[in-house]
Amino acid sequence: MTRQSRGLQKEHEIAQEIYDVTDGSIIPVRAGYSGNSAVPLPDLLIPIAGSLRAVELKTSSQDRFSVTKSDVQQVLDWSMDMTEISTYPYLSVKFSNYEVYTARLIYPWNVRRSFEAWAEMTPLRASVTSAGNLSVHNPTKLSKSERDERGIMSSITSPGDGPAMIRDLRHDEYANKDQYEIETVGVYEVLQSSREN
Questions:
Q1: Smallest Cα–Cα separation from 26: which of 52, 56, 57?
Q2: Which residues of 68-96 are buried (b: 16+ CB within 10 A; e: fewer)?
Q3: Number of structural domains, the chain?
Q4: For residue 165, which of 70, 85, 93 has the smallest C-alpha distance?
Q5: What is the pLDDT of residue 183?
Q6: Which residue of 17, 72, 93, 95 sits 20 to 30 Å from the alpha carbon of 126, by its own alpha carbon?
Q7: Tens digit of pLDDT for each residue in 182-195?
Q8: Are 46 and 39 in contact (CB under 8 A)?
Q9: Which 3 state secondary structure label does DSSP give 115?
């Protein structure tokens, strides 16, 4: 299985887990051909609390890997261009044998600042390189006590990557608006209204 097909499989698994764990109240969409099209597309689109979360997912089994500006450019462009609904860009990192970690790219207009903020927020060991890339280290390089102290869960003790991603997305206070403060209209209401007119 190629690295790309493993990544697509992981996106599908996480989307299914999110759907299952929320009993279908959150329906994530895996954007087909993300990274391969002229239209900028994130890997996953997840509607939560009146806003849309655009997620770029990076997976690795290596000791360390780098996330480049071009790796996140599509999710940033898509989020900034989406004006119909509040949309926030996120970077998720998944190492083999550990649960996924997801955090917002806080400064979508400035990738380096977003990477710096992401590196500060993550329980993983991460830093920004002199070239402006985000370098993320596999949790296996930390001792068990360091992993426990940082709250890094193994995939064995984790409830799953879908629940972990939803947990991280729900903990983003900036992006989580009170549902009663946001006026939302469903597709059904729009279609019903157009039939009445």
A1: 52
A2: eeebbebbbbbbeebeeeebbbbbbbbbe
A3: 1
A4: 93
A5: 47
A6: 17
A7: 444 455 554 555 56
A8: no
A9: helix
89, β-bridge pairs: 54
Helix (H) or strand (E) holding 165: helix 161-170
Enumerate the H helices of 3-152 as residue ranges.
3-21, 69-81, 111-121, 144-150
Q: What is the C-alpha to C-alpha distance for residues 156 and 180, in angstroms, rounded to an integer?
A: 37
Domain of residue 175, CATH code: 3.40.1350.10
- Give the pLDDT band of residue 5 (cuts 50, 70, 90): low
Q: Are 102 and 95 in contact (CB under 8 A)?
A: no
The token pair that represents 141 in the structure block: 């390089």
Separation of alpha carbons 28 and 9, rounded Å:
14
Residues with Cβ within 8 Å of residue 48, at least 6 apart in sequence: 26, 166, 169, 170, 175, 176
CA neighbor of 90 nearest in space, from 123, 124, 53, 63:
53
Query: Which of 98, 102, 25 has the alpha carbon at shortest distance from 56?
Result: 102
Parent domain of 54: 3-196
Instruction: Tell me 107's DSSP state.
Output: -
Contact predicate 79/88, CB 8 Å:
yes
